[in-house]
Amino acid sequence: MDTPTVASAQILRMRNPMTDLSRFLAATTASGKIPGVALATLRAGTKGMEHYSGIRGAHDRAVVDAATVFEAASLTKPVVAFIALQLAEEGLLDLQRPLFDICGDYVPGDAASRRITAFHVLTHTSGLPNIVRVEAPLRTYFNPGERFSYGSSAFAWLQRAMETVGARSLESLARARVFEPLGMLRSSLEWQERFAGNHAQGHEWEGQPVPKRRVATALASWSLLTTASDYMGFVQHVLASRGLAAESYRHWFAPRVNTRQGDDAEDLHGRNPPDPNIAWGLGWGLEPAQGCFFHWGNSPGFRALVLANRVTQDAVVWFANSARGLRLVHAVAPEAVPGAHPAIAWLRIGRL
Length: 352
What we know:
Blueprint: H1 6-15, H2 17-31, E1 36-43, E2 46-57, E3 60-63, E4 70-73, H3 76-89, H4 99-103, H5 118-122, H6 155-166, H7 170-179, E5 224-226, H8 228-239, H9 246-252, E6 257-260, E7 274-280, E8 285-287, E9 292-299, E10 302-309, E11 315-320, H10 329-336, H11 342-346
Antiparallel strand pairs: 1-2, 1-11, 2-3, 4-5, 6-7, 7-8, 8-9, 9-10, 10-11
Helix pairs in contact: 2-10, 3-6
């Protein structure tokens, strides 16, 4: 028998890419680099492989399974964008109207902030910082709409506006418009005691456990708790263009502004040039040349990423209870959503 060449070995691997990916994830969690991973895929719009590996955390060494609830961090934002677009379709939320006119002041004494709209928040062009800290207090750093700088803090103002026009809490809006219609039975923007028996705990770079947060009130920028299967149900819904009119989908995924580099994609002072390969739509990061959309999640001890191709209808989402979790992308993305992905370089994701 002929000895297999490198090329033939690659062909064999390509025949069962998901099998190889399962082995890689199992080996990674067994090594201790990442305690636990939950991953789900779509292939041509149909739910494909799901992989669960490792442990839930230092608090519970039981294995991660399909019901394990993870912190989704900023993967919350596309869900909030979906609800905002529904409210816009119904004439309740004007994406171009200043949020100040809808629900009052958010940055007292900052005249420029009074021009910020829902459109600015969803495209990360509000001029507000990502998080409020000593070196980046809550104020506008550039005129709304001028350029991109990832700004999570603005989502609190958008949330207030959505709750005002929707006449209910964000959690209630999400439950009625997303979680219940899509069968996302283990998802919430607020901690639920029903999650207590099977949830993941975060771990920092060297494995130190992070105290579990139990968020009592929904936060539009990061508080989603969910499973890989539940979130993939949302992505499948999006790829099938359900829940919104065709025109809304066109607006949702139209490239609005090119992104810029910076820590956590924040570039308050415009020190970095625009990236020609990455743009932002209304709540999604975009790879326009590839027809892909994405978002990443980063909270203490947790990392998450969703990536989908609107043309091929392939998609992947994973949650990891480790600060190293994004580093899975180099092995996962080529197998789950084939093709070049400039977002990986833009996010400056290192290797395991």
